[in-house]
């Protein structure tokens, strides 16, 4: 699963760092590697590059390693790192920006199912204004694993339906929400 | 007392019991929850990982509606709370937001449900209504991530050791246990994409609750509830030891203490059936009789 390896010899390149700092408005340069982010991270065991090393890699300009890492996708946005950073770097927001950059640049996500899930989720909002959980989960399963995965989920869906936890019909489409999607769409 | 309510998408489906119990106990507490008219999704975890502007705008649209209503906005879902607070800070700093004009007055507070109940309704509101004290119950309160962190967004007073749910359940007679995992993460948005990771985090939370001597867990977030409640059979199979810990929405426990007749209906939707525990503690029979 682990795809990203940090090289032994690094020639620093500030352009990636500047771009990240401009995109997210966080001063990544302020990091002095205290490792509080990594020590508090509940998902560090599943990451290939620990959070403090991601920040260091951004400082050094290791764009490919960062954008190809599992880390940026496995991060679940629990905000523990952001809360504890002594330099006030919103690390969870930096992770958001890195994910956005990787998608925009067409990098094949090392955890491809995760961006597929977000796409299915946003698709549901765009269509109905509110997320319809059943429709969203089915769309995601179909895209992530095909009919087999979808059928695997059918049993779970049926149990939830019997318990009255599935809303039958989606909400009505909302024009303002569609306008927001259109107006914030990133071109190119 | 009248406030605006942003229910969010989960409370209309998966977390129906959270919405119904929140509405029932609010009514008993003399609080009128007025649902925001024509609310739409806040963008949850998917918008902010995809597009910052989209994330702020989807949440801000709802703040525009709340602004016009002019009453404090109560948000039961932790993820919605976080997104709405993030957009609110953005608007208050005067930053431009797609789809919003510049007329945001912001003359209202955004509150999580536990915070609203404890700080605005207050202890007496709860103690006055007790019919069925939760004396025999030993819950731990699990707050998760998004009503707490980061405090610059959430305005949480004590993000590492929150107390609102603990205080409410204690005031209802429960023997609330202290523990150090109340603000840890359950794996939230990885539920469908990396169930292996989310189950690892969930198991740790269940283990720590048991170690603290708890017989159930109280939560205030639809994702936390789903994650902790629905995967215990799978976690048991994987771990080779049984997990069967009831997970309550804290509002269901308030309803139980108030003797609300709908408690059984709310609990019937849970995966881990809490009714045997409540029967054992003589909490449900009292309920059935009343």
Structural notes for this entry:
The complex is a heterodimer of chains A (about 190) and B (about 290). Chain A is mainly α and about 190 residues long. Chain A has two domains: about 15-105, Fumarate Reductase Iron-sulfur Protein, Chain B, domain 2; about 115-185, no CATH class. Helices cover about 60% and strands about 0% of the residues of chain A. Chain A has ten helices and no strands. Chain A has helices spanning about 15-25, 35-40, 50-60, 65, 70-75, 80-85, 90-105, 115-130, 135-160, 175-185. In chain A, helix 1 packs across helix 7. The two termini of chain A are about 30 Å apart. Chain B is of the alpha/beta class. Chain B folds into two domains: about 1-115, Up-down Bundle (Glutathione S-transferase Yfyf (Class Pi), Chain A, domain 2), CATH 1.20.1050.140; about 130-290, Rossmann fold. Chain B has helices at about 15-30, 45-50, 50-70, 80-90, 115-120, 125, 150-155, 165-170, 195-210, 220-230, 230-240, 250-255, 265, 275-280, 285-290, and strands at about 1-5, 30-35, 75, 110, 140, 215-220, 245-250. In chain B, strands 2-1-3-4 form a four-stranded parallel beta sheet. Chain B has a three-stranded parallel beta sheet with strand order 5-6-7, with helices on both faces. Mean pLDDT of chain B is about 95; it is low at about 285-290. Chains A and B meet through helix 6, helix 7, helix 8, helix 9 and helix 10 of A and helix 2, helix 3 and helix 9 of B.
What attributes characterize this protein structure?
heterodimer; A: 188 residues; mainly alpha; Fumarate Reductase Iron-sulfur Protein, Chain B, domain 2; 2 domains; 10 helices; elongated; B: 290 residues; alpha/beta; Glutathione S-transferase Yfyf (Class Pi), Chain A, domain 2; Rossmann fold; 4-stranded parallel beta sheet; 3-stranded parallel beta sheet; 15 helices; 7 strands; disordered C terminus
């Amino acid at each position: 699963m682990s795809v990203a390896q940090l090289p032994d010899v690094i020639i620093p390149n500030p352009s990636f760092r500047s771009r990240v700092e401009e995109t997210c408005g966080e001063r990544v340069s302020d990091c002095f590697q205290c490792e509080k982010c990594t020590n508090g991270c509940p998902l560090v065991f599943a990451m290939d590059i620990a959070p403090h090393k991601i920040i260091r890699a951004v400082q050094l300009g290791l764009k490919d390693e960062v954008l190809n890492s599992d880390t940026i996708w496995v991060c679940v946005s629990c905000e523990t790192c952001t809360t504890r950073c002594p330099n006030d770097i919103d690390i969870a927001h930096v992770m958001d920006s890195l994910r956005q950059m990787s998608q925009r640049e067409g990098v094949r996500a090392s955890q491809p199912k995760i961006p597929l899930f977000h796409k299915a989720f946003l698709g549901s909002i765009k269509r109905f204004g509110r997320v319809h959980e059943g429709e969203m989960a089915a769309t995601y399963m179909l895209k992530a694993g095909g009919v087999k995965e979808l059928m695997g989920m059918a049993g779970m869906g049926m149990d939830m339906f019997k318990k009255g936890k599935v809303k039958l019909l989606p909400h009505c489409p909302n024009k303002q929400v569609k306008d927001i999607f259109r107006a914030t769409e990133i071109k190119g | 007392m009248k406030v605006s309510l942003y229910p969010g998408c989960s409370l209309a489906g998966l977390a129906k019991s959270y919405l119904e119990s929140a509405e029932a106990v609010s009514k008993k507490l003399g609080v009128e929850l007025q649902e925001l008219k024509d609310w739409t999704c806040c963008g949850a975890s998917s918008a902010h990982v995809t597009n910052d502007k989209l994330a702020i705008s989807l949440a801000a649209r709802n703040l525009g509606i709340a602004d016009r209503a002019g009453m404090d906005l109560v948000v039961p879902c932790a993820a919605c709370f976080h997104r709405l607070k993030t957009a609110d800070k953005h608007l208050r700093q005067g930053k431009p937001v797609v789809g919003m004009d510049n007329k945001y007055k912001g003359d209202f507070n955004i509150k999580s449900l536990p915070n609203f109940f404890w700080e605005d309704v207050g202890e007496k509101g709860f103690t006055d209504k007790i019919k069925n004290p939760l004396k025999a119950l030993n819950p731990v309160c699990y707050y998760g991530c998004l009503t707490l962190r980061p405090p610059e967004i959430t305005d949480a007073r004590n993000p590492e050791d929150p107390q609102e749910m603990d205080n409410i359940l204690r005031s209802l007679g429960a023997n609330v246990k202290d523990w150090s995992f109340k603000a840890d993460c359950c794996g939230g948005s990885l539920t469908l994409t990396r169930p292996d990771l989310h189950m690892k985090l969930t198991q740790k939370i269940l283990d720590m609750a048991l170690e603290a001597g708890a017989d159930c867990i109280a939560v205030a977030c639809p994702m936390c509830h789903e994650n902790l409640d629905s995967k215990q059979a799978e976690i048991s199979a994987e771990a080779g030891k049984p997990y069967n810990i009831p997970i309550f929405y804290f509002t269901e426990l308030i309803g139980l203490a108030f003797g609300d007749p709908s408690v059984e209906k709310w609990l019937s939707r849970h995966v881990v059936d809490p009714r045997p525990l409540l029967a054992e503690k003589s909490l449900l029979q009292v309920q059935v009789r009343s």
